[in-house]
TrEMBL record:
Pfam families per the UniProt record, alphabetical: Vfa1
First and last residue of the signal peptide: none
GO biological process, one term: vacuolar transport
Protein's UniProt name: VPS4-associated protein 1
This protein's GO CC annotations: endosome
Domain of life: Eukaryota
Source species: Debaryomyces fabryi
InterPro entries according to UniProt: Vfa1
Spans annotated as Disordered: 102-133, 176-202
Length: 202
């Protein structure tokens, strides 16, 4: 079992506490700390966007944005189809077809024409309304996309090779620390003889 899980939290420290990035050695104020706080190291924010180094852990808030994006995408597709159906050329085409077939107007014909004009106006209003609805949905989608692309992740998992290196470094540091402690214990080094050593000639 590993000494710490592959789950790191990104934290910012004060500028005066910045240290060299573990990868590029440039000063950075970003620290990755393992979930159980056993391991930590400094890293530049740019490296966190490199999929070969780490992957962000998506919180519920981010997942909700992705869900909303999918839902809006479907609504926009339906709205575009509605706008296409209600385009004015459809009404113009129908009016010209009907107009070419009618005889010169009686009062009854004129009343019918008024009804058709009213219907055509309603159609234009529906088209403009549909366009506004589509524009509103597209605006919402732009906001969602912006929120997704600019989302500030706080938790990450390391690339498996990077994680293995961190765990190995941790184990080696524990071994070194234990050895240092043992070296300071009485009896670790052989003591010098307290009695007189007889010479080989005697």
């Amino acid at each position: 079992m590993s000494a710490f899980p592959n789950h790191y939290h990104a934290r910012l420290v004060a500028e005066k506490d910045s240290k060299a990035c573990t990868l590029c050695f440039k000063p950075t104020t970003t620290v990755l700390i393992s979930q159980n706080k056993v391991d930590f190291f400094y890293v530049c924010p740019l490296h966190l966007k490199d999929e070969h180094f780490s992957s962000p852990i998506h919180p519920d808030e981010y997942k909700e944005l992705e869900t909303k994006k999918g839902e809006l995408g479907r609504k926009i597709e339906e709205s575009r189809k509605r706008v296409e159906r209600l385009k004015p050329y459809t009404w113009n085409f129908l009016s010209s077809m009907l107009g070419s077939k009618k005889a010169e107007g009686t009062d009854q014909d004129k009343d019918k024409d008024k009804d058709k004009d009213t219907e055509k106006d309603k159609g234009k209003e529906s088209y403009e309304s549909a366009k506004q609805d589509l524009k509103g949905l597209e605006g919402e989608l732009n906001e969602i996309n912006s929120g997704i692309s600019n989302y500030k992740f706080k938790d990450y998992t390391l690339n498996k090779d990077i994680y293995r290196m961190r765990t190995q470094n941790y184990v080696q540091s524990k071994v070194r620390a234990k050895k240092q402690q043992e070296m300071h214990k009485p009896g670790f080094f052989p003591s010098t003889p307290q009695h007189k050593v007889d010479s080989a000639d005697q």
